[in-house]
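Q: Hi! Curious about what Nucleoside triphosphate/diphosphate phosphatase looks like structurally. Here's the sequence.
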Amino acid sequence: MGVPIEGETLQIHSYKHNGHLHRVWEETRVLKGTQSIVIGGNDRTMVTESDGRTWITREPAICYFHSQHWFNIIGMIREDGIYYYCNISSPFIFDHEALKYIDYDLDIKVFPDMTFTLLDEDEYERHRREMNYPDVIDQILKRNVIKLIGWIRQRKGPFSPDFIDIWYERYLTYRC
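A: Let's find out. The predicted structure is below.
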């Protein structure tokens, strides 16, 4: 596994447990890249769905991926504050083609006041049965939902007060 190089752009590939490509983000600028953590920034990047449909993200976002945690976090910068979209997912890998992870359906949406909602529990249960998620994966994912909620409540990592602002300022230096 390689390490993304700061300042370069990369694609982000999301897969499903069955190995099928789920979604591709065309271009994200690497703001920090190590074996453990990748922090990226993007704005109005093209996203391609598995069925070929495309759409463009609406606002700047800072993305946080960790090689040891079963979730990733996207902080979306909007006029009324920072919204977070958190995917329960496998840890990332980077293979020089793209940053890749498996999306396990469960998501947590966090609002600027740090209230949050767990989303897509029905989709998770359906896919768990259809794709035969092993019990060990099911347990890991449920533990990571609890861990992620702890991070939100403790304002840890990307949820800390200045995290998104600091990394967004860094992202802007590449846009000049």
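A: A fun detail: The longest strand covers residues 21-33.
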